Amino acid sequence: MSCKCYAALVPAGPLVPHTIERRAVGPDDVAIDIKYAGICHSDVHQAREEWGSAIFPMVPGHEIGGFVGDKVGVGCMVDSCRECQSCKEGDENYCATGAVMTYNGKYKYKHCQEYTEDGGKPTYGGYAQSIVVDKNYVCRIPDNLDLAGATPLLCAGITVYSPMAYNGLKAGQKLGVAGLGGLGAMAVMIGKAWGCEVTVLSRSEGKREEAMKELKADKFVVMSNDSDVEAAASSLDMIIDTIAAKHDIPTYLSFLRQNGKFVMVGVPAEPLDFHAFAIIPKRKTITGSLIGGIRETQEMLDFCGKHNIICPHELISGDKISESYDRVVKSDVKYRFVIDTSTF
Amino acid sequence: MSCKCYAALVPAGPLVPHTIERRAVGPDDVAIDIKYAGICHSDVHQAREEWGSAIFPMVPGHEIGGFVGDKVGVGCMVDSCRECQSCKEGDENYCATGAVMTYNGKYKYKHCQEYTEDGGKPTYGGYAQSIVVDKNYVCRIPDNLDLAGATPLLCAGITVYSPMAYNGLKAGQKLGVAGLGGLGAMAVMIGKAWGCEVTVLSRSEGKREEAMKELKADKFVVMSNDSDVEAAASSLDMIIDTIAAKHDIPTYLSFLRQNGKFVMVGVPAEPLDFHAFAIIPKRKTITGSLIGGIRETQEMLDFCGKHNIICPHELISGDKISESYDRVVKSDVKYRFVIDTSTF
Questions:
Q1: Can you tell me the ipTM of this complex?
Q2: A269 pLDDT band (50/70/90 cuts)?
Q3: Whole-angstrom Cα distance, residue B62 to residue B102?
Q4: Mean of pLDDT values over A335-339
Q5: CB A289 to CB B282 under 8 A?
Q6: Is domain A156-288 annotated with CATH 3.40.50.720?
Q7: Domain coordinates in residue numbering, chain B
Q8: CB B104 within 8 A of CB B123
Q9: CATH code of the region B159-288
Q10: Which residues pair with A251 in a beta bridge?
């Protein structure tokens, strides 16, 4: 089955109209009629080959919303080994031999019809009008959610939801959200629905109004404002850190109360430093989290359905993807670009 | 009540015979006939005023073993606010307004008879023949344990036991111990009694035999040996890091399996750095821990009683304290110096 898509034909090339072939629908597969695809910052990194050698042509997109009769979604993974302890426990995202990523990956496991002796055919993502995916890696999107707005939940939503669940965040606790891009916005909305008091930790005053009014955050701390920083000391139970640039970890740690947890989901290029005294005296924790498993992604979607949470977004046509990439890099988006694949 | 002790009369001065006055025994107090005091590396730091301004004359010692009829012990704290959430939950070590340390502290809370308007009288520690302590800060030492060998449990023991308990270490899991001084030795012995497979992570080959034969460790990794390091990759559930000097955190993190925890109890002077990629892909955790609460210290002593664990040590007389300090700095001790106070 051939389908229209947008692809980067060469590293750092523009995203241009292209056509790819999808595999025949096997007994465990579903063919998804894709309507929307979110643009994640990691799409930009990979299409521009900033994370090491990549596979071209590349069809990015791991926030996929479409139909198989019902509304469905696909996130960052389309396959995994299914045999390791992580896979068996539903943590396919931590598959011991590596999950097959939705694009810029290879179908490397024998159980897939696209497996080949030389390492498997490449995966192509969601900037396309269709995709064929093993049904075990597809989630249901609740009926009440707008499909375009629900699409970013498949990466931005699960990435912040999973560490809240795994690290035992409780209703009534105080949650900090560092950085207010797509992940940060989702963390604020999901945190509020979780029953937490949510404080946004932002590097600029400029986002205060949208954080408080649109996203319903409870407090707003500007990191460059000493009195803001002082007032927030030792007040938070958990911080979800979505910042992907170098930042001053010890100051963020100072916001945690005893036993507080600092969870990194953004990946700055540089190493980060901290002093042991920043964590020992109040038994603080620095930890990380990588997207989430399929079962947990479904749980997150159901949670968002119950609380009517979708990601605020800007809908764009295919011809605007390259331009949108530049805006993503400048953080000039509230909070996600979602591509309308009917424009391909 | 006056009592003989060893004290540093001036910063970085030698430890010399001295006499101090202990308070009258109040209704909540017990007077302990001290027999032994352990030498902790932090005694050296404080007597030499390496951790900022200190109180002199100073009588160090926060590993105290003696008698009040029964065998008893006192650790790092002799008082706390008793009103904050941490104190109420038995985490006096994390007292919100600060526990009163056993020496080089001040009796700053009104409920103590040594409280004064100008901030309280100073505390004097265990290098002495007696001490008067509120009974709520005194623990029972099990009858079957040798008192001299049990004395270091009051700091070195609880410091490694507490994070094992708090972080949910389970029998059958794989524990790494980084650094093999007093704390490291206790971590190996307690970890074995916990039912764990224990791997020592050491910077030198020299400690292999004592780790394996005397302390009964299961495995020994020399950090400078590439094949040792490679073989240990992704194998450990938890690492107790007792190293108080700068070290390469990412290499230690590489030993953790998915969801593994790296617990810092040693405090290097320098900041430590790591890359977010060292913790995110396998959801690893870096955390810290500071001694333990009184209830938990009792639990640890009972655990050690049940498993017949004492700290291997070298018994010294008072006149050898200053010389022993130099040997502590050179790590020339297996694994703790314990002072026999009958020699004062």
A1: 0.94
A2: confident
A3: 6
A4: 96
A5: no
A6: yes
A7: 2-155+292-343, 159-288
A8: yes
A9: 3.40.50.720
A10: none
